[in-house]
């Protein structure tokens, strides 16, 4: 998809739609890419009905919410990340603050929590009653029906391009549902869950972190754009090449989904699954949700219609029946 734009923002999943809308307003008014990306992710972290990011995120197998987040400034290449943090209201704000540190910019667990507390970042109990009910229900279903606890995923990754051609990317997730305590996926790992280089573009991923990390997928997409591919070509070729390589060499491949944007505001998306959605805003296009469909080694993209959007809202706010 080609659009000329002097600013733009794209994010994984429908859940980023509202945040992308607010980020677009900031970008339109001359705001920076880093502010826009962080703000959009914070909106998702704060919304209790998104069960895979921030407040309301699903817990690990012991019933505790452990969160990962990262931020990268594509101009200075500064990056900050946290992994496995508990009881922090906005992991993305801590990641952004860590990106301003020369050393110790990727912190995990208790060390990260203590640093955040010292710096005055808000503490909050991140497990909601709703997320706890989901956990109990899924735990029982998993035991009763032998379902994989690891299916289902939704990391938010937001890319922003500002009017000064600066790019940033921000991610946040509660990680794989029912993960082991201490497990970390791709989302806070540079080059895997995210990468940004303002001279080229940025990419961010969602899916099975264990497999996304095997291909450093976000760095790979940015490299392919640097070598002259359009964002859509870079996204599709990187995702399907990685899937093929995993099948040939590892014997299986988990879900792999990505979005990317170059520094002209052209964007792309690719996925190995059927129900991947993403959100975009550019000067030519108010915040809009798109749905994808895989066809061979192509990812087809169409706008989400009102019916789909309404059904989504009903689904995510529906009562969790135990
Ligand atoms: C992870 N990639 O922790 C994350 C999970 C995810 O969409 O994307 N969910 O592996």
From TrEMBL:
Keyword Ion transport: no
Domain of life the protein comes from: Bacteria
Broad enzyme group: hydrolase
Keyword Disulfide bond in annotation: no
Pfam families attached to this UniProt entry: Asparaginase_2 (PF01112)
InterPro entries in the cross-refs: Ntn_hydrolases_N, Peptidase_T2
Active site: 155
Record keywords, A-Z: Hydrolase
Molecular-function annotations in GO: N4-(beta-N-acetylglucosaminyl)-L-asparaginase activity
Sequence positions that bind substrate: 183-186, 206-209
E.C. number(s) listed in UniProt: 3.5.1.26
A single Gene Ontology CC term: cytoplasm
CDD domains in the record: Glycosylasparaginase (cd04513)
Positions bearing the site annotation: Cleavage: 154-155
Name recorded for this polypeptide: N(4)-(Beta-N-acetylglucosaminyl)-L-asparaginase
Source organism of this protein record: Cedecea lapagei
Top-level taxonomy: Bacteria, Pseudomonadati, Pseudomonadota, Gammaproteobacteria, Enterobacterales
